[in-house]
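_Per-residue structure_
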Amino acid sequence: MLDRLYVMFMKEFLELKRDRWALFRLVVPLILQVVIYGYAATFTISHVATTVLDLDHSSASRALLSRFYATGRFNIVDMATSQAQVTHDIDTGTATAAIIIHAGFARQLLNGQSAPLQVIVDGTNSNTALIALGYVSQITDRFQAGAIAGGWPQPTAPPGGITVSLEQRPWFNEGLNDVWFFIPGVIGTLTLMQVVSLTAFAVVRERELGTLEQIMVSPIRPFEFILGKTVPFFFIGLGDVALVTIFGTLWFDIPFTGNPLVLLLGATLFLLAAVGLGLLLSTFSRTQQQAFALNFFFINPLFTLSGFAFPIAAMPRALQWFTFINPLRYFLVIVRAIFLKGVGLGALWPDLAALAALAAGMLAISVIRFRKSLD
């Protein structure tokens, strides 16, 4: 059996070697996608086009606006002179946000009263709007703290009221660097796409070219054929995990604080599930076009329901249940925890156990269906 498996392994690697574009397809697109995700996938926004309407024309209003200038988050595109001009800028898309300081702003501050600041945000892009409002809140809080420290009266609190001071100190990613969040997740998403595609297409290609029947009449047994077609892509997946991990940590300076052996265990279980999914898709496909369509149909929902970019807790309850059968969900938890938190088996065993159960179940179903399709 070992000799037959060796022949199958060598057959797969020789096919990759003879394909002059194989190495290019396996390495270059992977690196390019890591670079694209690292630089383009971010929740941080800068240079928000902003219109300013200052009706107070005081030193306090200018001090507040200077803080907006200094952050680099807001790009002042127009100094409006009327409310109608502000409305026009928002309606035409000239500005995404508008800051309106009403008359009496400085006087209310000096009298120890609340000084309202009006902010208008284009909600067409809700994500940008929410992030911009968060920046506005941070800037105004710092301005208020600086004004009180500079000797301005503090706004009067209601009788018996309690003043709460909030100080933020993020753990594990103190700079809130989005790249530290996205790149570890890219390890799982890109590896899943590549391994599932390679496994499904390799088996379907044998069937489409008519060589599958020739292999089946050879001394190779179905179980050996399955191992011979899937194990090489398992090792290719391990190579992808190592490549993205090394490239991400070196190029983007992402800390790796965990144990590489724990990452290896998680990657092994995850790749077994990915290979099982690719084998399962091959049992439903007769041509490579069908395999491509099924691959697209399954991979996109797995990506969306993985928690890579969209919080699972924010999804409807029905969709949250679907995430429990998504191996990418568990692997993203594992890889991000290993990279940034440095945790080990004691904290990750529930996710590793769930991943092992999914891998075993998916491989079992795939092998049974594949044997039936061969028969």
